[in-house]
Write a structure and sequence with these properties.
This protein has 24 helices and ten strands. By secondary structure, it is of the alpha/beta class.
Length: 711
Amino acid sequence: MKRELGLYSVITISLGAMIGSGIFVLPGLAAKIAGPAVVLAYVLAGLVVLPAALSKAEMATAMPEAGGTYVFIDKAMGPLMGTVAGLGVWFSLIFKASFSLVGLGAYLVMFSNAPVKPVALALAGVLIIINIAGVKQTAGVQKTVVTGVLLMLGFFITRGIPHVDVVNLQPFLGKGFKGLIVATGVIFVSYAGVTKVASIAEEIKDPGRTIPRGILGSVALMMFIYPVVVLVMVGVVGSGRLSGTVVPVADTARAFLGEVGVDVVSAIAVLALISMANAGLLASSRYPFAMSRNSLAPNVLQRLSKHSRTPFISIAVTGSVMLVLVAFVPLLELAKLASAFQLLVFSFVNMALIAFRESLVDWYQPKFRSPLYPWTQIFGIVASFGLLTQLGVVPLVGAVGIIVMGIVWYRVFGRSRVSKQSVSLDALRVRTTAGLVEKTRERLRSPGAASLLVVFHHGATPDRERAVMGVGLRFLEPGGQLSVVHIDMQDIGPTVPVPDLPVGAEELDVDEHQTRLRRGALMDLLSQRGPELVLVEIPPVSRRTRQYIADARWLREHADASVLFFHYRGIREVKTIVIMGSGGPADVDKISLAYRLVDHDGATLRLVHVLDEAASEAEVASVRNYHLQLSNLTEVRIESRVERSADLFGNLDRWTEGADLVILGAAAHPSVHFDLSDRIAGAIRHPVLTVSPREAHRKTLGRRVLERIIY
């Protein structure tokens, strides 16, 4: 695309996307909520918009290409968040355009006696046809309309200021602070178009300078125009008369400009609202089209008209939603929902900038940088979500619904069709694995666990116990404390001697009948001895062992120690250990334990990591690089095997072939009905050691969710 747009064009495009319903319709609705303080509400809304404007200005100078909000969020946080943001922007634009159409109908009614809703629906139908036919609003028309509106508003302000009565502004906070905040949220959509220029960055001359100047200049100008115009409205007619009207500019003009002035103001309002509604339909219909091209929406949405070359299916779908909204959703709820979705999207914009900055990717080199990073963005995120919570139940449910819809849509439709990752996820994965490598290095240097508790089922044979103890003693540092407990699920019997215990080792027997007491006794023992490591022998599943295994799982969830489950299936010398899964929080324990178990001469550690079939080459390369870093920590030979597969259990025999032992990571808080590590351990023919690291028991829900996303 040719770079032909200068600073004035950028400002008029930005202003054109803002000037409309925010000044010609919303002040009356907001005055009913906040009273005279509606003037301040426009200032506060501008301040909340400012961080997103700064963030988008920075990202647009780093990526001066077509796309805008959806592209930035998609690149920063991945296709899942891109899907949520795409739906959020789509709905925000549709609601704003629908809101403009209802306001447009109200101004047209001033020239006739036709009812507002039918007029708005008819106008929506006309705009849909126009967009499908390919009749576009030119940049020249946009400049003319914006210039005309600015001149009219300038005239409105200069003629109206002398008629302002200070009495009409008192009491300023008569509706309370709550009313002010709610009104701020309602009129937030007035600033929604400020960042529109980022989507046409490829057409802007000297984007590194022009985009930030255009965006920030537009915000500054509207933060002056909006409050002053609303000040004239409230000061001239009072918030009481202004409350609830959908033609506030016309009602105010009647007080000091007469009927001719009302007609002129109304005519300009009609032009501005038509321009905004058309631009809203045009822009919103391109989001399903863009998502379809990115494999996040059905291919049918990419179909172009043979005559006009417009995405007519996308326009028709968007227009149909708009018709439903105009027909059935009240005007105030349209405004609230439009603002709710815009607040959500602007929060994502601020998060995207943080993701780019923290990712430290080489290609992200913006020519403009947002000041006071990251506090500016944090303020924008917190303020946006704060306003969102004040808009009421319907907008809040709508915002949550968009997030849920986006996640479900991506999981069901888009996930299998896209393979790219976000810079934030890539960077987070790199930083996390670097930390794991360093922790593994430190663990390998340690002499072993200071204390070990070994738990046996009472029916374990001496040979089985001897083999399990042999494994456990490899993990214990010289002179460390060893505790042993036998659990008898049936009767309290005599103490079972533990074979081949080193001198000074302590033997403890706990025999109880009741489940509660049995678990309580184990926890008492853990509290008394405070073992660093717990090794639990897992016998074959049978009627006699089922409760013991359940108690062992319970112990894994509650012990303040690293817990190992050993599925003994005959083990002698250990030359080949297969470690399933890598990059996760259990890696430090898995690698260090394997290192202590393996007979070093001619030994091999085989690292096997299974990715989704749709995993990108970048993901595969990232895991292989992590394996390479681990191989540099020890003299033991390490094999790396990174596979793409949708059939985990069907390939286990191939991946574990020749293994003397298989080591798995286990969740500290497994599902009641489903534990993947236990299912894998049961499906493998070789001896298996599952590891639940001590740190996993202390993680918050948020941390566990984050690790699930990363790994």
